[in-house]
Hints:
Elements: H1 3-11, H2 15-26, H3 44-49, H4 52-60, H5 65-98, H6 101-112, H7 116-134, H8 136-149, H9 157-189, H10 193-216, E1 223-225, H11 230-241, E2 249-252, E3 263-266, E4 273-277, H12 278-283, H13 286-301, H14 304-338, H15 349-362, H16 364-386, H17 389-399, H18 409-415, H19 421-434, H20 439-442
Parallel strand pairs: 2-4
Antiparallel strand pairs: 1-2, 3-4
The structure holds zinc ion (ZN).
Amino acid sequence: MRHPRALLATLCLVAAAITTIPARSQTSDTAATRVTTSLAPTAAPVAARFDVDSATRAYMAQLSPEARARSDAYFEGGYWLLLWGFLYGLAVAWLLLGTRLSARMRDVAERATRRRALQTAIYAAEYIVLTAILGFPLTLYRDFFREHQYALSNQNFIQWMRDEVVGLAVGLVLGTLALVIIYAVIRKVARSWWIWGAGVAIVFLAFVATIAPVYIAPLFNTYRPLPESQLRTEILSLARANGIPANNVYEFNASKQSKRISANVSGMFGTVRISVNDNLMNRATPAEVKAVLGHEMGHYVLDHVYTELVFFAVLIVIGFALVQWAFARVHARYGGRWDIRGVGDVAGLPLLVALFSIYTFAMTPVFNTITRTIEAQADAFGLNAAREPDGFALAAVQLSEYRKMHPGPIEELVFFDHPSGWNRIHRAMVWKAEHIEHPSIAAE
Ligand SMILES: [Zn+2]
């Protein structure tokens, strides 16, 4: 789930945005941020027959205090990892610049060839591999040891390392390509590089978001058509009812990496693919699977990939403008000491990356709120489409394995890229209360 993108993230300038999009399209989570409990006067008798709050409490009580403490600790540790990862990245940039290692890497590239694009490519490859190596201790702790500590991983070290190396190879190809194009643009347009550079980053982001599910995901997992079953028939019926042109459902072996449940509906230009992971198929009830897929279909029908691209495009343009402003100032002061000739000099890449990471770190609540709001929309769509409020609530309980169930409002605003489990369960129970008269809901 995290491998290809997380690596890519550390490797190129468009990192922050790249991580967010595919990461989300793979998560199957569901729920709503804002909950309105004030029922209309006519709904009063309904509320009397179905108590939303006690139903929510009953689902929350399915988790033992130990399980709650464990998932709280895992998720809250993530807040600190965000900070450590940020500071670690700054330290790596400082090391590359302060020791003039970055300038020497550029000199190596310039001695190797006279072609500017090739020089950029050589430097980019050096940079991507070196930062992956320097960042490895943190990656190893965060993605291997810590995942095992919380019993979320199914991989031994060799299997995990194989995925890391494949992720690095993908990052090397895509990152080098992106940097060659961005630097060609920076040199061409000089002062207005930030707007053109942002344009390239956005196009590249759209490209990666488009090819990732089709070409990158299969490098890590195997996709097989889901065998004929009642559930498969119902999934395809749900798709048809919502105007999704899919005629097959795929199952992929996510259990190879972790115990996490997930699904996605991906594709553009008429190629739609509904994928469920084997953890979801093995660990969830049919009602849960349908509830999760209702949510995923919501992402597809509501064009969330494009919505996010628009939001991220705006944030990237603002980020590049700020980076340009800051780069000029830092360069005026330290450019000589670090042997960086200007913004068009690839040796300045660690500085560009560091400045952009300061921006994305500061904007964490904004990025999270954009995605959380979109996720809440998909939740609402999924409840209406699948009509499985209890399946939805059960899935929210299972997702608590790696997400804190009941954060404070500020905590949810800053750190949550999906609505919290409590919010999702509560929203599902509100939906149930409002549909309790319907025979299919009342029957449960
Ligand atoms: Zn989602």
